[in-house]
Amino acid sequence: MTEHVHRDDFGSRLGMWLFLVTEMVLFGGLFIAYSAMRHRYPMEFHQAGAELNATLGIINTVVLLTSSLTVVLSIVAMQRGDKKRTIGFLSSTLVLGLVFLIIKAFEWSAKFHHGLYPNAPHLATLPPGEQVFFGLYFSMTGLHGLHIVAGMGVLAWVLYMVIQNQVRADRYVHLENAGLYWHLVDVIWIFLLPLFYLAA
Amino acid sequence: MDAHTTSEAQAHPGYGTFIKVWVVLLLLTGTLVGLSHVGQTAAVWGLLTLTPLKAGLVFYFFMHLKYEGPLLKAVVLVTLGTLLIFFALLFSDVAFR
Predict the structure, then answer these.
(1) Is some CB atom of chain B closer than 8 A to the CB atom of A43?
(2) What is the ipTM for the molecules in this complex?
(3) Which of B18, B21, B51 sits opposite A191 (nearest CB)?
(4) pLDDT tens by residue, A51-86
(5) For residue A138, what are the contacts with CB-CB under 8 A and spacing of at least 6?
(6) By CB neighbour count within 10 A (0-12 exposed, 13-18 middle, 19+ buried), where does A70 fall?
(7) Do A14 and B72 count as a contact with CB atoms less than 8 A apart?
(8) What topology is assigned to A9-197 in CATH?
């Protein structure tokens, strides 16, 4: 008698997608708040947007898009049973995630240096519209940054499972679900770039 | 479920498909940045058209929605539709104040 192993990969992916739609609604609410505030303070958003470093925002976009590519390529490699390449692509994703966070740290520390941080005395002297802009900027890029950290943790865990052969060519739904999460984090950044960095 | 798994296995795309999508995503990002330098109107149109297009490409190819059945597609569309309704409701309020 063969051992029955209960397994439903589609159900796993459906569960992941249901979680992802809650994330979409979470960020969607913030995007709607942004739109309402930009409608109310168009000039202030334009001026505050000029304070942001668009080049760093664009570089980080390229970094995240590339990290999304390496995740999806790791799944292709896994489907072909190429463990070495799967590990290589996943490691590249983790490195790119780290590069994103380092660039973000430089960007934020420059803002802090200029007295732009939540509840800063200098921020309080700015027009209300610019205060709202920076409030949304720190909330949304900060929440996104936390998602990057969480995504890196999940991908590192999956990488460990790949190395241990717990995730392999005939059983890789963990890798697919971790990839789905990482792609959603990428999609959110796709919206953050024009809303903040290209707002000026 | 077996039939689904088999058809899914046949539909696995190769490295090239995703690299092409990545190149298109980079080109769209370049266009978006270029439009933001043209003027405010061009920047807003770029934001409203190219950004959802980029997100759509990630959803459809990178997140494998292209290769999934109607249920997962419906889950995503219903969510996006709900957000759009909230967006429309909010602007029907703020636009006429």
Answers:
(1) no
(2) 0.93
(3) B51
(4) 999 999 999 999 999 999 999 999 999 999 999 999
(5) A117, A118
(6) buried
(7) yes
(8) Four Helix Bundle (Hemerythrin (Met), subunit A) (1.20.120)
